[in-house]
Design goal:
rod-shaped
C-alpha cells in the first residue's frame, strides 16, 4: 500500500510541475503578444482590427 501511495504522490508532483511549466510558458506567450501589439501600435496599425483576426 505504501508503494501505491508513493506512486500517486510522484504522479501528483509530476502533474503539478507540468502545470507550473505551462503557466510559465503561458505568461511568456502573453508577454510576446503584448510586445507584438505594442509594435503594431508604434507602426500605426489598428490593434482593434488585429485583435479580431
Amino acid at each position: 500500500m505504501a508503494e501505491a501511495t508513493g506512486i500517486a504522490r510522484d504522479q501528483l508532483k509530476s502533474i503539478v510541475e507540468r502545470i507550473e511549466k505551462l503557466e510559465e510558458e503561458k505568461k511568456a506567450i502573453g508577454d510576446d503578444i503584448r510586445e507584438a501589439f505594442a509594435e503594431a501600435t508604434a507602426n500605426g496599425f489598428d490593434t482593434k482590427a488585429l485583435r479580431q483576426v
